Amino acid sequence: MPELGDVEGWRRLLGRFERSTIEAIDVLDDGVIRNRSAAEFVDALLGEQIGAPARIGKWLQVPVGDVIVLFHFGMTGALSIGDSTPAHRYDRVVFTTDAGSFSYRDLRKLRGIYVASTAAEVDAIVGPLGVDALIATAADLHDSVGAGRSSIKAALMDQSRIAGIGNFLSDEILWRAGIDPRTPTSLLTGDQWIGLHRSLRTVLRAAARAGHTPRGPRWLTGARWRDPATCPECGSELRRGVVAARTSVWCPACQHTGG
DNA sequence: GTGAATGTTCATTC
DNA sequence: GGAATGAACATTCA
């Protein structure tokens, strides 16, 4: 699930807990608490007040008391608001506050929850991140994503170049921009960069607003599941293959390499 | 049993 | 140094 739109949706939902106090923490699986013991984690947060949640790329950052709690959802994580009693099968940590409860829910546990005491510690945990994709300008896009020699799809998913775009969003953006995902960034024309930025904004704003990557009839993400999968724009059969080491879908009729 | 899954990281190999 | 590749992480589902 989680790419920029999902995490932005959870950030918004978590906003309703701002200024509430954590009254209980149920660590159902301490494997997801990554850089503290479960006891240290509970000790640091219990009785503390929640601040305004922020998002950078796919990271959710929540000030709690004197520390910052960092959530990363991997491929299968989610923040579940309000329906954590009784605990869902994949709830790993349940937070109860005086404003209600929420839980960190995750099937595969590829990532987890971190605690940072300083800004330097935050940086060390999240690693190098490019500008957040939702606020990236056309110049940001060209200068960061365009600086290497990789395919455009790999570059869009590279969190150190631009933060928040994953497999589905990159496919969606490239489809809308009419660019073949395998195109080396060095081959993109000025017009293609402009179009790419326009598509990126359209897709990410819709995803952020919806709280997930849209799957409607005019979206590639809606079409990629069908069998046979056809292009929502032209009806051609979509192509499926591995690009940038990820399962990718694109339209051979609408998406091109050349300018 | 096999393969694949919306993410990231590490080692290895061009 | 960069970039691509494959494995690994942990788990479920088709």
Structure described in brief:
With 259 residues, the chain is an alpha+beta fold.
Explained architecture:
- With 259 residues, the protein is an alpha+beta fold.
- It folds into two domains: 123 residues, MutM-like, N-terminal (N-terminal domain of MutM-like DNA repair proteins); 120 residues, Helicase, Ruva Protein, domain 3 (Orthogonal Bundle), CATH 1.10.8.
- The chain has a four-stranded antiparallel beta sheet.
- A hairpin with a 2-residue loop joins strand 3 and strand 4.
- The structure holds a DNA duplex (14 and 14 nucleotides).
Point out poorly predicted stretches. none
DSSP summary, beta strand count: 12
Structural class: alpha+beta
At the fold tier of CATH, the topology name of the largest domain is: N-terminal domain of MutM-like DNA repair proteins
Bin the helical content. 25-40%
Which second-level CATH architecture of the largest domain applies? Answer: Alpha-Beta Barrel
Mean pLDDT: 92
User: SSE string, helix = H, strand = E?
Assistant: HEHEEEEEEEHEHHEHHHEE
Dominant shape? elongated
Return the domain count: 2
Q: What strand line-up does the widest sheet have?
A: 1-6-7-5
Question: What characteristics describe this protein?
Answer:
alpha+beta; N-terminal domain of MutM-like DNA repair proteins; Helicase, Ruva Protein, domain 3; four-stranded antiparallel β-sheet; 8 helices; DNA-binding
